[in-house]
Amino acid sequence: MIQNDKELKVTLARISRFYEKIARLRATESNPDNYRTAVSGFLAEVERMQLEVREYLMQPKTPSRRSSARRGSAAAPPYRNRHIEQRWKETHGDVLRQYAGQWVVLELEEIVSHGDDASQVVQEARDKGVEVPYIFRVAPIYDEDVAHFGL
C-alpha cells in the first residue's frame, strides 16, 4: 500500500521499468510462447502496482481527510469504471505512439496531460479538474536494429 508521494514516485518508476523490460522482451523474443510466459509475471505485477497507485490517488492530499476517506466517509472521490479509457488505449495506438516513453492521463476519450514526470502529469490533470486521474505510461519505441538485453 502506497503511503506517501515519495512511495508513489518510486512505484511509478518501477512500473515504468517493468514496461521497458516488457518492451525489450517483445522486441527480442521470437517464440510467442516464451514471450507470454516471460511477461505474464511482469504484467501481473504492473497491474497490482497500478491498482495501488489508483487507490492512493483516490485519497485526498491532507492527512486528516485521507484517514477519514479510508474509513469510507463521503470525502472520498467516487470510483468510476475505466472501461472507456482502456478501450480507447487499445484502439488508438497510432495516437499514443507520439507519447512513447511518457506518462499520460486519459479522461474518457481525451488526453488531459502527458510528460516525463508522473507526479507533474497527475497534478496538471487535477488542475484541469480531473478528480481521479487515469494514468499510464506509453512504452518506449525501440529501434528494431538494436539488440536489447536484461530484465
Write up what this structure looks like.
The chain has 6 helices and 3 strands. With 151 residues, the protein is mainly alpha-helical. The protein starts with a helix and ends in a 14-residue tail after the last strand. The longest helix is centred in the N-terminal third of the chain and has 26 residues, at 32-57. It has helices spanning 5-28, 32-57, 63-70, 83-91, 93-96, 118-127; strands at residues 103-107, 110-115, 134-137. The protein has a 3-stranded antiparallel β-sheet with strand order 2-1-3. The chain is globular and about 50 Å long. Helix 1 runs antiparallel to helix 2. The protein has one domain (5-137).
List the helices and strands and how they pair.
Layout: H1 5-28, H2 32-57, H3 63-70, H4 83-91, H5 93-96, E1 103-107, E2 110-115, H6 118-127, E3 134-137
Antiparallel strand pairs: 1-2, 1-3
Helix pairs in contact: 1-2
Largest sheet: 3 strands, antiparallel
Tally of helical segments: 6
DSSP strand content = 5-15%
What gross morphology would you assign?
globular
Helix content: 40-55%
Distance between the termini: 24 Å
Sequence stretches where pLDDT stays below 50 over 5 or more residues = 64-74
Number of domains: 1
What pattern of helices and strands is seen along the backbone?
HHHHHEEHE
Radius of gyration: 17 Å
Q: What integer is the average pLDDT? A: 80
Structural class: mainly alpha
Strand order of the largest sheet: 2-1-3
Beta strand count: 3
Structure in a nutshell:
The chain is mainly alpha-helical.
Defining traits:
54% helix, single chain, mainly alpha, 151 residues, 10% strand
